[in-house]
Amino acid sequence: MRLILLCVSPILASCVAAPEPAALAETTPNDVNAADELSPDEAFAHGIVLRDSNELEEAFTYVRSAAMRGHKEAQFELGLWYMTGNRGVREDFEQAAKWIEQAAQQGQPDALTYIWQLYFYGRGVAQSDRRALQWLQRGAGAGLPMSAYYLGLFHYEGIATPVDHAEASIWFEDAADQGVPGACYYLGVMSLEGDAVEQSNEDAAYWFERGAAQQHPASMLAMGDLYRDGTGVDQDVKQARAWYRKAKAQNEDTEVQSAAAARLEELEAAEPE
User: Could you give the C-alpha distances from 162 to 121, 131, 167, in angstroms and in order?
Assistant: First the structure.
């Protein structure tokens, strides 16, 4: 089950190998007092200006001051620094999870996107599929498209909840309507198989085409299959070849690349151009 969610976040994937930077120098009481004299909004804004000027020690002081006073954007920013181990802060997933969760509790969208992943992978917190599911539910309820998509996957695969493809289809459609190509792919598969939705080859073609239009590898491969077999579309070997070539040319999914290459060879052997 965990393979379907591998490398959800490029930051979570890349930070594992991030080099450890030098630690920030200790802040002085004067620095702290100056930051605390500003409102949380002002402290955060000034911290970002300092960050962008590469004045990292002072930036940390101002952002942390705002975060400690409940500023959700500052909390997420601080958590991100700890997660990635940059901006002069040593990588520390426990601190990252602490601040990101505080921001998520206040509904900060980016924090909601990351916190479920921290629980799912057990980075800085005890691994918990149940907590990951709860955070996905909150993110999806807040209208976040990727949260809706992964919530659909949790229901589809039965992660921390019973397998429920009907419920999965609801969240996939929510995500697809917000432009998530992977959700379009799953709806295509479910329509093709009549899995928790009405069986319809035409609907399958509709969803696969929407995913393929956004360069989703498996959707492009599926479009090739539909045109090859005349399923939900008029049979068209040239169109099938075109989609297989697109699926082969992408670099995101090597399994799809291999499958597309094999299908092209089969077509060209049967009916060379």
Answer: 20, 15, 10
Question: Which range marks the domain in which residue 122 is found?
Answer: 8-127
Q: What is the pLDDT of residues 79-89, one digit of tens each?
A: 999 999 988 89
pLDDT of amino acid 31: 62
Which CATH number goes with the domain that contains 68? 1.25.40.10
- Return mean pLDDT, the chain: 91
From CA 43, how far away is CA 78, in angstroms rounded?
13
pLDDT digits (tens, 9 = 90+) for 175-225: 999 999 999 999 999 999 999 999 999 999 999 999 999 999 999 999 999
- Domain check: are 90 and 192 in the same one? no
Distance CA 180, CA 176 (A): 5
pTM above 0.90, yes or no: no
